Write the structure tokens for this entry.
Amino acid sequence: MDGEYEIMVAVYFKSASTPFAKDALHVAIKKLMEKINVIEKGDIVAVKLHMGELGNIGYIRPIFVRRVVEFIREQGGKPFITDTTTLYGGHRGNAIDYLMAAAINGFSIASMNCPVIIADGLLGKDEKIVELNGNKIAIAKAIMEADCLITLSHFKGHGMAGFGGAIKNLGMGCCSKAGKIWQHEVSKPLYDENKCILCRKCLTFCPAGAIYEEDGHIRIDYTKCAGCGACTVLCEQGCFYLTNEIASEFQRRVAMAAKAALKKFGGKVAFMNFLLDITPRCDCCSFADKPVIDDIGILASNDAVAIDKASYDLVCRVAGRDIFNEIHGIDGTVQIEEGEKLGIGSRKYEMMEI
């Protein structure tokens, strides 16, 4: 309307194109951080990222994280790298296993020059409850005790949310096990018996022991099912699946948990999305698969909604279609729309290349 100006959120972009040494991506980290800097001297700064399941090679490269840590130290902050334990089987279900996997993947106090702390404690039970819209959401204690939150996200496909970026990293990644269970309550998968070849692998890889065989048929005990989605990824026949309705409700809870994680920080948050090695599935898998498109670059913003919308738009533009929806049959934009409704941020952005 005349006389009114639409406020656009700043999203900064560094292209993956690096024809000269001065254009190197690791050099650009400092330039991007300067644009979104919210760190004050003496701040304890949580650097939230996914350090990769053992066997996965798609996670954010340690050299980029080390550069973020160096920048925080230059500002007088006290950084620690952090993530939380998982619900499903693998090598990150408790702090001991996760720290071992993280070290193998390149994240340790020696390589990062700062502590690596599993934010929800030894068994995933260290938490603080945040009340939001009548819900009690369990956020990992170490994250809630920090002064500032820097969230580094590998932007990629996701079998339950369509894609994962800053909102997913905040919502699921900042919760303790109880907070994750609350989100996954609405994401229990359906089962297509017509695709089943009765290989019985699901009987062993379900971490909740919810899948069982009865009279030559595979069944799901939904009273035990945690909705973690391991079966939807690991079943090679695609017997276990989510409808768009289930996936949408799951994304809405993820967005709500993201808001809960951000609640205490005010404006002292910053986000970087890495559109590199854009794999079909998330870094929780013990394998990565090849990237679905070429590397695009790195985005930075102080707005979680804007950076995810910009990341999604870039991927769709480069691919020429919504490649994540094509792969998973899930509309991942629900989390972005819900994030805006909840006041996490804005979908209206202006991209500035550095």
User: Anything to note?
Assistant: The first strand starts at residue 9 and ends at 15. The chain has a mean pLDDT of 96. The radius of gyration is 20 Å.
